[in-house]
Specification:
The complex is a heterodimer of chains A (652) and B (276). In chain A, 20% of the residues lie in helices and 25% in strands. Chain A has 652 residues and is α+β, with helices and mostly antiparallel strands. Chain A has a seven-stranded parallel beta sheet, with helices on both faces. In chain A, a hairpin with a 7-residue loop joins strand 2 and strand 3. Chain A is globular, with a radius of gyration of 25 Å. The termini of chain A are far apart. Chain B is globular and about 60 Å long. Classes of the chains: A alpha+beta (652), B mainly alpha (276). At the A-B interface, helix 1, helix 3, strand 4, strand 5 and helix 7 of A face helix 1, helix 2, helix 3, helix 4 and helix 5 of B.
């Protein structure tokens, strides 16, 4: 019996091996398989008119589907159906299933959803978790001004207060004490952690948990408690949650940046496949109850992926920004990525989006972390691990009521930023999503951040704002952002100007830079006139015999040069190139856009490469009127004072 | 006979080695023995990518539809969808949505989406390998088992403890203990896909109960060992290596290839019907 069993399993393995060999051979002969991809059992169904959920249920039932509810922002026209017996994953679309749905006269289209993968950022080898203390104390309201939290892990939270512990740089921190001392602790603000769940029973989190804004999309119920695995893989969301809103002075773990704010859990990363629908529903979940969405995941950081939000997700973000928070706009905070210097986060459509605030990380002595992925769309930075001393990770809550000192990656950076924004929103609850970005630009500090490899230097843009390709406008400063939020006047309306485009193809060859120019009056005199820049997008179609060797630079009329695409050593694509890909830069923030914009394309390679720049369109986003007109700078040397003066000196 | 046994042993050995190697490539996360996983950039996900698709292909074969009703995505189609990334929220998105729909209305070939997807097919990492797709109990449950591929199960559902202020009436679990052991037990009771990437081993629930228990015990023992180990000492790469091999070897010693087992229950049996 034993023998038969052995030989049987041996056979299976042989078959397996042969299969793999076959496949390898097949793959080798055709670099891109003819049916790459996996389709899920989810369908996006679009009705010819709006239907209510009940009606949709009925129709779904008639065809053997289950209705999972309407799509955010579709006005009842689009629903998420799941087929009851289709497998979770298959390699081809099932046309019959789509046909069955489309036969129904009510249904306009039905599209089976492809699955794709999203990875958590910064789950790196960690040392050990340390057991938390039992929950014993209760909250007391005392005057805490100038008093440090008594939580046992607070001394380890160097990113909150850097006293030079573990070789760090004194005062290189988020300056949260200065915000807390103003009585601002995040009250009435909810941050959603879009991740693998949140241990909302954790004694350091449970009283700051916003259950009614939470949801579990991975198992479709309202309780996003993490799924157990032997390696405790699903601790990511819990760790992020603690950074934002772990309670203060309760004797457990550390303290959150906004320790009186609320956390909502959105469990959406923990199923075999990700779909557009899960992402869309997560990012549009309870947009009036949730103020800030924090995401520490995205496309694979392998340095060769170019991917971003799909249709429904993109629409959910846009809707969140336009209509969320009762019209003020949701704040989406994004980890810029852990791909290291070989990757460029402008190839990650989530981080590169104008509607997300992409956050990079620095370590405790001011260097960039070795895994940091840089790009011109990064707005600011916070802190994470990376120093030689393993105890310089991010101390926060961990699964099953425990604590950790080793949360890591840009994953750990994004929630810190979310916490700082929660403080700003308590200080001034009517800040819009754009106000938050302006405040971030104006209050982030260069401090002592520097590029360990001395590649990227701090540079002043045309209106006197210092930026660095790695860190954006610097490290967030909670004290300053709260102070400025309190006196903030909302920025004037935003316009989008299509400044021009070049649509004839130009060859790019090794050894010679290709320069293209667009001269623009930035829509002067039209109703989309932009005079003061926020985001700038260069939408580019290009290909190359090796995509990873292509570098792109955009220079503004005021002379600010942004590297909008850096060399990506691992990207060996030679077929797809970039198709209307929006490379975004924040470096020209506050500048005047009129004049000549220069695009430089070149190969960074010793081996001869060739390519084509097929199309370049320039899109300018910003306001017509000076954005800081109504503000009175507190000190003459503040960034606000400098930009404001620059704007006043230039008469439009 | 002796020769035969020798041959088998050799074959099994070689294949196990290959399998271990494969798993090593495909799930780098297992190489970290520290309570979390590394998602190192630049890992080669190429091999399992191919593997994944082909497996799903094969499992789809005996599905009810004729295979010629599938349409293979075209390769060389441009991507107007990307335009949606440029601001102009509603306007552009609406246009883009129309394009998207037009594809399915006019031309039944859904190539635009596929192209977008195709372009990113390298994304297909080791998830499938990890999933252990066919890992299903074949325990007689009185239900009629249909032989189709319609049963790729989901991962287990975690428990849903009641948040502060909630009661069991709202569908959550009041009687709850916030420990790893509790969650593990809770999930072990479910019929679901084993997450081979993050569980130390994926045992098949066999008809034989004693074996199940044995495996379960072994599993919890391993988990305890593992956490004790990580708490005690910092992870060194050599111990990672050891850990990895022992885990994989364990699997291959009494598990047949889960993908080839065949009998699967319909999804509805796994979805949402789990206990409160």
């Amino acid at each position: 019996m034993q023998l038969i069993w052995g030989s049987l399993s041996g056979l299976w393995f042989l078959i397996l091996l042969i299969t793999v060999d076959e496949l390898l051979a097949e793959k080798a002969s055709s670099p891109v398989g003819k049916h790459d991809g996996v389709f899920t059992s989810s369908f996006l169904v679009r009705f010819r008119r709006s239907v209510d959920n009940k009606e949709a249920h009925k129709i779904a039932g008639e065809h053997g589907f289950e209705n999972l509810g309407p799509l955010v922002g579709s006005n009842g026209q689009e629903y998420h159906f799941k087929h009851r017996t289709l497998p979770h994953a298959r390699s081809r679309r099932s046309l019959p299933h789509m046909r069955v749905l489309k036969k129904n006269p009510m249904i306009h289209t039905a599209i089976q959803q492809p699955g794709f993968i999203r990875v958590k950022r910064g789950l790196r080898p960690v040392v050990s978790s340390i057991h938390g203390l039992p929950y014993s104390s209760t909250k007391t309201h005392v005057d805490r001004k100038g008093v440090e939290p008594s939580d046992p892990y607070f001394p380890l939270q160097w990113y909150l207060k850097n006293t030079g512990q573990n070789g760090g740089k004194i005062r290189l921190d988020l300056n949260v004490q200065a915000a807390w001392d103003q009585g601002i602790t995040g009250k009435n603000v909810t941050t959603a952690i879009m991740d693998d769940g949140v241990d909302y029973m954790h004694p350091d989190i449970k009283y700051n948990y916003n259950a009614e804004a939470s949801y579990d999309f991975s198992s479709n119920d309202p309780y996003p408690y993490p799924r157990y695995t032997d390696d405790w893989f699903n601790s990511h969301g819990t760790r992020c949650a603690g950074e934002v809103a772990a309670a203060r002075d309760n004797g457990i773990c550390g303290v959150g940046v906004a320790y009186d704010s609320k956390i909502a859990g959105i469990r959406m990363l923990d199923q075999p496949y990700m779909t557009d629908l899960i992402e869309a529903n997560s990012m549009g979940h309870e947009p009036h109850k949730i103020h800030i969405y924090s995401a520490s995941w995205g496309p694979t950081d392998d340095g060769k992926t170019v991917d971003g939000p799909r249709n429904a997700t993109m629409r959910a973000i846009v809707q969140g920004v336009n209509e969320g928070r009762n019209g003020l706009g949701n704040i989406y905070v994004w980890a810029s990525g852990d791909g290291g210097e070989e990757d460029d986060c402008n190839c990650d459509g989530y981080a590169a989006s104008m509607w997300t605030i992409s956050i990079n990380s620095a370590i405790n002595d001011g260097q960039n972390a070795h895994y940091d992925e840089s790009c011109s769309s990064t707005l600011a930075s916070t802190f994470s691990n990376g120093a030689k001393d393993p105890n310089t990770g991010v101390a926060t809550t961990d699964l099953y009521g425990k604590c950790t000192t080793t949360h890591s990656g840009t994953s750990a950076a994004a929630p810190e930023a979310a916490g700082v924004f929660a403080l700003a929103l308590e200080a001034n609850p009517i800040l819009t999503w754009r106000d938050i970005q302006h405040l971030t630009v104006l209050t982030s500090k260069r401090n002592s951040l520097f590029d360990a490899k001395n590649r990227f230097h701090w540079t002043m843009n045309g209106v006197g704002l210092e930026f660095n390709h790695l860190f954006g406008f610097g490290v967030l400063d909670a004290g300053s952002i709260v102070t400025l939020s309190k006196q903030w006047k909302s920025v004037p309306p935003r316009y989008h100007c299509e400044a021009g485009s070049i649509a004839d193809a130009h060859p790019i060859v090794t050894g010679h830079s290709l320069f293209l120019e667009i001269k623009t009056d930035s829509c002067k005199g039209s109703d989309t006139e932009v005079n003061y820049l926020e985001h700038v997008q260069a939408v580019i179609t290009a290909n190359a015999s090796r995509r990873g060797d292509l570098e792109l630079f955009l220079t503004s009329p005021m002379g600010t040069r942004s590297m909008i695409l850096s060399r990506r050593g691992n990207d060996d694509d030679y077929r797809d190139g970039f198709v209307k890909w929006p490379f975004m830069t924040t470096h020209t923030w506050g500048e005047y856009p009129q004049g000549t914009w220069k695009l430089e394309a070149r190969f960074n390679s010793h081996v001869p490469r060739e390519g084509w720049l097929i199309e370049w369109s320039l899109v300018l986003h910003g306001s017509k009127d000076p954005p800081y007109k109504g503000l009175a700078p507190i000190t003459p040397h503040s960034k606000l004072a400098i930009v404001k003066k620059a704007h006043e000196d230039k008469k439009m | 006979m002796a020769f035969y046994i020798k041959f088998i042993v050799l074959a099994v050995f070689i294949v196990v080695q290959a399998y271990v190697g494969l798993c090593y490539i495909s799930s780098p996360s297992l190489a970290s023995s520290d309570g979390s996983s590394s998602s190192l950039p630049g890992n080669d996900r190429y091999l399992p990518d191919v593997f994944l698709r082909e497996l799903i292909d094969r499992m789809s074969k005996d599905f009810l539809e004729p295979s010629n009703s599938y349409i293979d995505p075209l390769e060389e189609i441009s991507e107007p969808g990307r335009l949606a990334l440029i601001s102009r929220a509603s306007k552009d998105l609406e246009n883009e949505q129309l394009d998207y729909d037009a594809l399915l209305d006019g031309d039944p070939n859904p190539s635009l989406r596929d192209q977008e997807y195709l372009q990113h097919s390298t994304l297909w990492g080791h998830q499938y390998m990890s999933g252990g797709g066919g890992e299903l109990p074949s325990k007689p449950s009185g239900k009629h088992e249909v032989k189709t591929d319609a049963g790729l199960p989901a991962y287990c559902n975690p428990p849903n403890p009641c948040p502060v202020g909630y009661t069991a009436d709202q569908g959550c679990l009041e009687d709850f203990e916030n420990t790893a052991a509790f969650s593990r037990e809770y999930q072990t009771a479910q019929e679901c896909m084993c997450d081979g990437e993050h569980m130390f081993e994926c045992t098949n629930v066999q008809d034989d109960d004693s074996e199940t228990n044995e495996n379960g015990d072994l599993e919890s023992f391993l988990a305890e060992q593992y956490h004790a180990g990580t708490a005690a000492a910092s992870a060194s790469s050599s111990s990672n290596q050891k850990n990895l091999i022992s885990k994989k070897a364990m699997i291959s010693s009494y598990d047949s290839n889960p993908y080839l087992q065949g009998e699967k229950l319909p999804i509805a049996a796994k979805k949402g019907l789990n206990m409160y």
